[in-house]
Amino acid sequence: MAKQKAIAIEYGDWEESYAKLSSWLTHMQNHSPGSYFQILHDDFIVGNRVSREHRQFHRVFWTFGQCKEAFKYCKPIIQVDGTHLYGKYRGTLLMATSQDGNGGVLPLAFAVVEGETLTAWSWFLAHLREHVTDKNGICLISDRHASIKSAVANEALGWQPPHGYHVYCVRHIASNFNRKFNNAKQKEMFKKLAYTPCKHVFDQNLEKFRQLSPAIARWIDRISKEKWSMAYDTSGRRYGHMTTNLSECVNKVLKDCRSIPITALVKSTYSRCRKYFIDRGRQAQRQLREGQVYCSKLVTELRKNQEQACSHIVRVYDIHSTRFEVEETFNPITQRGGQKWEIDALMRDHVTLAQ
Questions:
Q1: Strand 312-318's sheet: what is its strand order?
Q2: Closest among 328, 350, 348, 325 to 337, alpha carbons compared
Q3: Looking at residue 27, what is its pLDDT?
Q4: From CA 87, how far away is CA 79, in angstroms rounded?
Q5: Tens-place pLDDT, residues 10-31
């Protein structure tokens, strides 16, 4: 109680904060083109009657125009997650997050809802599709919460193929495995399996994992390989993202805001996104002035690929069907190399050399 009073002194009265929420969001929307919000209220019951003077807060969704615009130029992945609020009034903060080409986290949308229910997740995902992005082919990454799975399964919300492709966070599945089987070593085996890129090696190791016990075999067989393994991400929709780390990064940034009045919480998301955009903008402008054409992450990856490609010899077999033979030179110092592969698509560290 004392903590809540101290917070009220710093951030304003808890009840008044709900009353101020609509006016602040309207002001934000007027000064931030492209932004959107919606607040839902329930009837306020006094005795057995509906009050005509008061309404009870139910949910709020908000997104900033700058974030929506930035997402147009980002990889088509969205990670969603929820976290509890622990102030005077409880609830759940839902978040959608993506990543730019330089590896920077991009918050896309937020909502405060009553909990991670089917109706709450459906409402959030519907708003995300209608008011944030209409891109097709988006890879939606989440945990295996039943409400998220059910909401995504609703074709009317726009997250079924070809509009969206739902996959799972590997870390959450590993945690679920450990809670069920209580074996940290086997948990790490599962995580290593999930990150295995080669389908042939994956299939072999998956069978070994299934043979650990009939119960483990039944458990893993209930989860489609396409939902959790890198090897079966055949279209590369994940872009290497196997967890919901991006959303959890935003969650950590907002951790100190989860116990403050709601208008202060919404303001914090705005001010922190604003500072983030200003800092990133200044960094990009500086790099442009220095003559840098590509973002830093891409430059680093190109240099790394060039170094790796120097140890390979590529022979073209059929340029029309992109079939190649790749030979790795033998290194007498490390005693590694000397292998040959026949491939149908260019592997990452062969791209520079093959071109």
A1: 312-318, 323-328, 340-343
A2: 328
A3: 96
A4: 25
A5: 667 888 999 999 999 999 999 9
- pLDDT of residue 353 exceeding 50: no
Consecutive H or E run containing 274: helix 262-289
Phi-psi region of 234 (alpha: psi -120 to 50; beta: other; left: phi over 0): alpha
Handedness of CA 234, 239, 240, 243 (dihedral sign): negative
pLDDT bucket at 355, cuts 50 / 70 / 90: very low
CA–CA gap between residue 12 and residue 27 (Å, rounded):
18
Strand order in the sheet with 164-168: 36-46, 49-63, 105-113, 90-99, 77-86, 138-142, 164-168
Around Cβ 116, how many Cβ atoms within 10 Å?
Answer: 19
Long-range contacts of 184-187 (CB under 8 A, 24+ apart): 186/212, 186/216
In SS3 terms, 201-243 reads as HHHHHHHHHHCCCHHHHHHHHCCCHHHHCCCCCCCCCCCCCCC
pLDDT of residue 237 exceeding 80: yes
**Pick from 62, 65, 66, 51: which is nearest to 21 by CA?**
62
pLDDT digits (tens, 9 = 90+) for 50-65: 777 778 899 999 999 9
* Residue 120 in tokens: 């709450």
**pLDDT (tens digit per residue) in 242-254:** 999 999 899 888 9
What pTM value is reported for the model? 0.85
Count CB-CB contacts under 10 A for residue 78. 29
d(CA 355, CA 351): 6
Beta-carbon neighbour count of residue 98 at 10 Å? 24
In terms of Cβ atoms closer than 10 Å to its own Cβ (0-12, 13-18, 19+), residue 25 is buried
CB 352 within 8 A of CB 301: no
